[in-house]
Amino acid sequence: MRVHPPSTASQPAPTAAIAAAVRRAEDMLRVSEGRAILGIAGAPGAGKSTFAELLAERLGPTAAVVPMDGFHLSDRVLRAHGALGRKGAIDTFDADGYVALLERLARDADRPVFAPWFERDLEEPIAAGIEVPPAARLIITEGNYLLADAAPWPRVREICAEIWFVDLPAQKRIERLIARHERFGKTPDAARAWVADTDEANARLIEQTRDRADRVIDWD
Question: Is the pTM value of this prediction over 0.85?
């Protein structure tokens, strides 16, 4: 069942969305006997990373963020497969490796687990860039394709206690994406072209998974 977080006249929508998400995450922790994994899905530029970090910040040391982006295939591998120009598409991630990490995070809660990090300055994944301590009882994992139905992505759905979908109007999302690409080195024309040709093709696929989410976060 999808549940839209309540908003109030006295609070901006993001503040209300985070407050509602914190309450739901705390409920998940109360009923979980071990470690719980919460997925945050959404199209490129929707604000998944920001939402996940804000949620973890509010929850404190009981929460840790492990992004899917650490499983980007390297530029070297993408170039070898002729896929560098499609970086970010569903087949340009090590999906099996991502699933294996989530399984390990769910299973090995009694010792530190190390996860890869995606370094945007380099546009490359960095091995063991994130340490998840045993104290983290809620793992927040965010990424584009958590609700995809192509194998092995349905396994992510099975591992996660819930998966939420962060929603942002397309025009705002596109503006944010263009600005992000410019910030990390693309010219304005190259940024707009990449968003139109690559990011939005991925976004259309991801938007089709929205109705599979347990909760939709209105992040406008």
Answer: yes
